[in-house]
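pinging the channel bc i need a second pair of eyes. not urgent but kinda urgent?? the chain im working w is below, pasted from the shared doc
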Amino acid sequence: MKFIGIDLGWKSQPSGLCCLELIAGQLQILDLDRLEFIADILTWIDQTVEPNEPAIIGVDAPTLIPNAIGSRLPDKLTHKYFGKYHAGCYPANQNLPFAERTVNFGLELESRGFAHAPTIDPQKLGRYQIEVFPHPAIVNLFKLERILKYKKGRINERRLELIKLQNYILDILPTLTPSLCTLRLCGSFTSEIPTTGAALKAAEDKLDSLICAYVAAHWWYWGKQRNLVLGDRTTGYIVIPEKRGSEEIE
């Protein structure tokens, strides 16, 4: 089973891409990349996942937007449950400039057999897609008191926060179930997190895509036993791992 993470550029900016595969009970990093154009991203997916191969794709973007104005139900729920962590998400509606791009991306995935999966039978092979949101996922997976603020601010401050994210990934995800083998991650970031703006943004996109892929794996492995679903297929939905307890560490 493969687990794809896509930190989708909502407008025209590049997207982070990650592919994990469950091998001998451990998630292995097969690819960690960044591409700009939607056509290239779809080609990457087609090359990464064979036509009938089981996989689940976690997309950080609103691929279901039923409302013409205002905010979706899952957007409002992120603010209700995660606002205190600064992890409420940006509102989505059909009149916003990114809506056509993100919704069409979800439709492209559906045309490839990746069905929306706001409900799932844990560990059942299939082709699925879900919407994910890294900020609350990071808060819950790593038991944080607030988000890691690597998106905005001075480059040096963002870099320090991104270093924290990388360290959490390296130190904690291998202890969870499913566990992540981080050897390939170390190879992908052979030096320190970059110090310049463009390179830092590229590293950010890749690490976000890895979180997206891990959330997809966590959803597939546990279903609702250890995950939250904000919303549903009709309203739009976001899948978020529940805050882990000490019993989950092996």
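so Helices lie at 38-48, 73-82, 99-111, 134-141, 155-172, 183-188, 197-222. and The longest helix spans residues 197-222. — does that match what u expected or am i reading it wrong
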